[in-house]
Amino acid sequence: MMENNSTHYIRPIGEVYLPVNSRPLVVESNTIKFFDDSDVRQPNRIFTHLKRGGLALVSGAQGEIQQLAEYLQKRRNELVSYEKPAYDRKRDRRNRTSTRRERVKPTGIEPQKRLMVLADSEGKLQLDPSPELPFLIELIGELEGINGKFPFLLPWEQLTDIQSALSIQYMLEGFECSFLAGQSVLPPKSQETTDLFRRGLKTLSYPDQILDLGCGSGILTILARTEFPTAQVTAVDIMPEALATTKINLKNHRKLDLVSVYHSDLFQGISDKTFDVILFNAPWVVARSRSRSELPTNDEKQKILTHFFEQVGNHLKPNGDLLLGYADHSGPNAIKKLADLIDHFGFKNHEQYKARVSTHRSNKKWQTISVYHLRKRF
Ligand SMILES: C[S@@+](CC[C@H](N)C(=O)[O-])C[C@H]1O[C@@H](n2cnc3c(N)ncnc32)[C@H](O)[C@@H]1O
Question: I need a surface site. Which of 193, 222, 284, 346 has the fewest CB within 10 A?
Answer without folding.
Answer: 346
